[in-house]
Amino acid sequence: MDDLEMVPAVLGGLALVAMFDLYPLAWAGVLPESEYGNGWWMALARLCISPAMLWGPIVLALAWAYHRRRRPA
Q1: Which has the closest alpha carbon to 27: 49, 58, 5, 57?
Q2: Residue 73 reports pLDDT greater than 80
Q3: How far is CA 51 from CA 16, 46, 48, 68, 72, in A?
Q4: In Å, how far are 11, 21, 24, 63, 73 from 56, measured between CA atoms?
Q5: What is the pLDDT of residue 9?
Q6: What pLDDT, in 10s, does the model give residues 27-54?
Q7: Burial label, 10 (beta-carbon count in 10 A; 0-12, 13-18, 19+)
């Protein structure tokens, strides 16, 4: 198997981690967060964003599993 097949998956996973995994820092007050009209809008935004934070690590885990499955024995 050629290792170049892994490059797009790893780069995509890292890009997703960079895009979405800074939200917990904003929620903790370390980074600035968007202003919401009230607490309900903030709760809705966090509920909708939370699954996206798992997308990058899942892509990286799947790339690793693919690499392990396709490597020569």
Answers
A1: 49
A2: no
A3: 12, 9, 7, 26, 34
A4: 10, 8, 14, 11, 28
A5: 92
A6: 788 878 778 889 899 899 889 888 888 9
A7: middle
Give the model's pLDDT for residue 16.
92
Taking the CA atoms of 15, 18, 19 and 21 in sequence, report the sign of the dihedral they define. positive
Residue 10's identity, in one-letter code, is V
Q: What is the DSSP string of 11-32?
A: HHHHHHHHHHTTHHHHHTTSS-
Number of CB atoms found within 10 A of residue 36's CB: 13
Q: What is the pTM of this model?
A: 0.73
